[in-house]
Amino acid sequence: MGTDKRKCPAAIEKFAARTGARIISPGEDMGIREKTELTKSYSFANEHEKDAIAAALLAYNELRPLLEKIRKAVSLQLREPVTKTVITKGISISAALEDMKPKPAPETAQQKKPFTPVPRQINPLAKTVEIMRRHNNKLIKALNRHKATIRKLRAMRKTGPDHRERTIQALAGQARAKNEQINLLSEEIALLQQMLAMANSKAIVKKLKDLTWQEYAAKNRILKIGEGDILLVENPEKYSERTISELKDKALIILCRGKPGSQLYDSATLIDASEISLTENEHFAIGDRNEIEAEKSKKDLLGRIVTSYRKERQGTT
Asked: Which residue, among 227, 196, 201, 199, has the nearest Cα to 290 in the 3D structure?
């Protein structure tokens, strides 16, 4: 738990004692200019929220090297409980892992293997892969149509010597244009097939230029954006209220290229796209699942710190 005061307020000390939270405070009281600089990328409704965000960021920046060490050393499944144990108890990562090891159960003559439920994300993943396959099939059909047109154009150029030079040049121009389209389609199909091959080990990301309703409605006919999807938005500062309303209950992760609009902060988990390794085509991208989960964990942790601090500040006013 962070505070913007060098001497921790009594209310925060009591709250930390009740919850077992660790208190992080600055060496000196944070000034207005320092807090303004620290929170310039965040939206807030009043000075109390600004102070809360500044204190949370102070705590996060101090814990960041430790969080990075945990991210590299601990599997995704254990990352959150290990982080909580290391921070609140002040013990090492190895000690936290050792503490979390399950005690061996007494062996029985016939020990049944526990049933492991199918993860919830398999069905959405299969649905998204099927969308990508259908799009790939459409591209292949378009490619075949262009190749058929090329064959017709070449046949027309050989139909006899009585054709005028202007007609021949026009046909040649059409053939060149079709060849360019064929090359572009071939490249897109190859990239999409590569993405499909990596779909089970990587995270599938759906692309939007911005969050205006016109862009969302047009792309959603292809992308079928659903609950828990990951979006890559080129210009998240452009959005409409209608699009935000559509996205709000879908629990989305949005990878942002550029500064997001203020209303997006309450509608989705926002991650800087430059932090994620991506392979892209026009409509889809493939991202490193571990990188996305690591960035999401950071955002979730920061969100919990800010929420806790806001509640505490509201209780003291």
From this structure: 201
Q: What is the rounded CA–CA span in Å between residue 304 and residue 88? A: 14
Q: How far is CA 142 from the centre of its chain?
A: 31
At 317, list the tokens.
């006013």
Length, in residues, of the chain: 317
Identify the helix (H) or strand (E) that includes residue 149.
helix 122-157
Cα distance between residue 233 and residue 205, in whole Å? 10
- Residue 298, CA atoms < 13 Å, CB-side half-sphere: 22
pLDDT digits (tens, 9 = 90+) for 137-190: 776 777 777 677 767 766 665 555 555 555 656 666 777 777 777 776 676 666
C-beta separation of 247 from 268 below 8 A: yes
CB of 203 closer than 8 Å to CB of 287: yes
Question: 265, exposed or middle or buried, with CB in 10 Å at 0-12, 13-18, 19+?
Answer: middle
* End-to-end Cα, the chain, rounded Å: 18
Tokens standing for 139? 């591209």
